[in-house]
Amino acid sequence: MTVTGQGGDAATSPLAASVGLADADLVAMYRLVALARAVDERMWILNRAGRIPFVISGQGHEGAQVGLTWPLRKGHDWIAPFYRSIATCLTFGMSARDLMLAQYAKAIDPSSGGRQMPGHYGHPSHHLVSVSSPVATQILHAVGIALAARIRGTDQVAVAIMGEGSSNQGDVHEALNFAAIHRLPFVLIVENNGYAISVPSEKQLSVRDVAVRASGYGIPGVIVDGTDVLACYAAGLEAIERARTGGGPTLIEAKVTRLTAHSSDDQQTKYRSEDDLAEGRAHDPLPIFRDQLREADVLTDAIEAELAAEIKALVEDATDFAEAEPDPDPATALDWVFAEHWPGETAPPWHGTAGSHGSAGAGGHG
Ligand SMILES: Cc1ncc(C[n+]2csc(CCOP(=O)(O)OP(=O)(O)O)c2C)c(N)n1
Ligand SMILES: [Mg+2]
What we know:
The protein has about 375 residues and is of the alpha/beta class. It contains 11 helices and 7 strands. The chain has one domain: Thiamin diphosphate (ThDP)-binding fold, Pyr/PP domains (Rossmann fold, 3-Layer(aba) Sandwich), CATH 3.40.50. It has helices at about 15-20, 25-50, 60-70, 85-90, 95-105, 135-150, 170-180, 230-245, 275-280, 285-295, 300-325; strands at about 80, 160-165, 185-190, 195, 200, 220-225, 250-255.
């Protein structure tokens, strides 16, 4: 079966046609949402079993992440992701093994050779910038990449992703102002899950929607239902094409839900009501997307069974693979952390391979 969005089954249901995609694309998108969820759930189990120290989860964000980044050109465009970007990283080419190697902080972890905080994924050859711990600093990094693309005439688009709480940082103003003045090929995605750790959005934002701030920069601000994968795809496509064709930046706000606590060190029942949590579960993009594809006859029993088996095998393989890999040599802990080693002539050893460990998350779209 082809579920990669390339070649093979070229069937196009009315649902797929409504967004200009083939059925195989929709199945490939669903596969990524489901794979991200399965990898994420496994991380929580490994954390509770004492195997990995810390999890920061993308559960509830996956539909928006896959839909919004699907129209990017893999290996050409750039993404500066944030710590919830598990599905984004899978969509842009990282594998389940790559993510798990970072969680275990192994020597060959492509994100940082075990030097970054857990959940701070990155992959140079997939054009995923290493996650920045101080929130919102990555927005300026992505705008810098967009400026470089403009100067070099490379036709590349740079995307930065963050939460709504992070949108209140001063860096965001600087980044959007600069990107808007120079009409840079830049898209800012805000995944609004209603909380910044334990602080609800009413206590972080003076407006209900982050997207309205776009008007202060003279750029389009778009609100999209983050549980609607195909609406996210359409919003992402429009913004990315606008950026690529000289139309300047867009701010996209995807309304999502945070299905887990902020992190494995947080207990959200201490500050969220049972009603609030139930409301969140009702906006889980995974069953919503599944039902939509089942109703459209894009997802059949046979495809679902095959995907479930494949995803189970990928999660088992990623866990076993990462578990068996050697830890970094403690004597190298400071190598490539300070400027005397990096940036420099010699790339870190974990950048030695061009591609991912194991099969990549996505197909060859874009
Ligand atoms: C500059 C800075 N301030 C504070 C923190 C601590 N911090 C980490 S995540 C987070 C919440 C961010 O909330 P939001 O942007 O809404 O993203 P979410 O975690 O909800 O996806 C905070 C305050 C930080 N990492 N960097
Ligand atoms: Mg938030």
